[in-house]
């Protein structure tokens, strides 16, 4: 704020460029005197120095007597460099005593240097504003320039070491040099027989260093007293708190605690128990409301369980109905292609395989079948596709024999293999291959469907397992088939099971299927529960 005030005064003076022309001496002296009187608490002396060396002052008579040897240097400072505000190091003059000058250069529209407006500030005013805020017993503050010259300090502080025989008191140079070597922030130092804590900061537009100096011993004494006051206050508050807690507990809390204990039993033990409490006050009314709520919750839980069972059955039927048309669409397209080519024998074989697959797919008696049955049906499907596409691709099985009796969801492998054929291998130049691996890892059946097709970008395959509620119809059948397998597995067994997809462009795709180990219907029912 102090710097802004000085800047505004110099801007007002420099804005009147006609003052720097010849023949305006009286006007310039009057304006400087006017601003000097209005801001006497901020500024000791105002000067207007023209480029030809002519000087006007707010104290023109005193200037004519005493002069000011610093003005030539200040004028030279203003003529050099940019047009912004500049400032000097501390110095002493007869008109302003110890001061710091702020220089604002003035240039014409053609960027010709016309002169400078100069303000010698009042360091006493700075002292009066800053020192009372920070100086007291055991602490003080100093303000130093870029050249490490003290600008503001408390000459009466017993913390600062002063040079002897000098008035006004001047801080010893060794002490200032010691502070200069410290970094910004909190520092510890020793000088003489005293220990100091010094907080340095240059957080101002002038680049001046502010140093907050504290006597560490006095600080520790004050902190000890503060801690003692905190302890006494805390003890008194604890006594008041304990007495108040006793009263509250005796008259109010005990009945509520009993009520809360009953309420916690609902979540802690999974029981919906009622509360027996014969009171006519607010607590009794709360207990009756709680009992009514428990009765309602019991009814709602029963209804929600029935709705959830019906919802799961509906979701399973919906997912199966999506897989059916998907499979039929591609298979019938294959048969139509063979018929157009007149390959009647292959048409009969394909239709026979299709009949077997349809009887397998639409058999509603069993939702879970052995892995070997799923592979047998997959072989029928592969025969149909090989009939249509010839030797475009091959299929190889590498499955642990122990897994053949494990139960899997019907139509788990076929949609994934179909996706590998139509969207991975057929778009590839040359022949391709599909490998199906099966391993048992701890309590998990892990099946891999690996193809060396064209692969997919991460942005594409990361969207294949988006929930069916979030997918758009334009995503196509390949996304629906894979997602339906993934959702069916998670509906039955939970989120820890399902599909994981990894793909690389021009290298292929790997689909991993995780299922729990099941060897009979009892195992399936346990997992579903």
Q: Output the strand order for the largest sheet.
A: 2-1-7-6-3
Helix content: 40-55%
Q: Which whole number gives the mean pLDDT? A: 80
Radius of gyration: 46 Å
Strand residue content: 15-25%
Q: Could you tell me the number of beta strands? A: 19
Shape: elongated
Separation of the first and last Cα atoms: 73 Å
Are there runs of 5+ residues with pLDDT below 50, and where?
A: 472-478, 524-529
Structural class determined from secondary elements: alpha+beta
Quickly count the helices: 14
Report the biggest beta sheet as strand number plus sense, adding barrel if it closes: 5 strands, antiparallel
Could you provide a short overview of the structure?
By secondary structure, this protein is an alpha+beta fold. It has helices at residues 2-14, 25-38, 60-66, 71-79, 123-134, 173-180, 216-269, 282-340, 344-361, 371-389, 414-425, 458-461, 477-493, 521-528, and strands at 43-50, 55-57, 86-87, 91-93, 97-99, 101-107, 113-121, 139-144, 150-152, 185-191, 194-201, 209-215, 368-370, 393-399, 407-409, 432-441, 444-451, 498-504, 508-516. The longest helix has 59 residues, at 282-340.
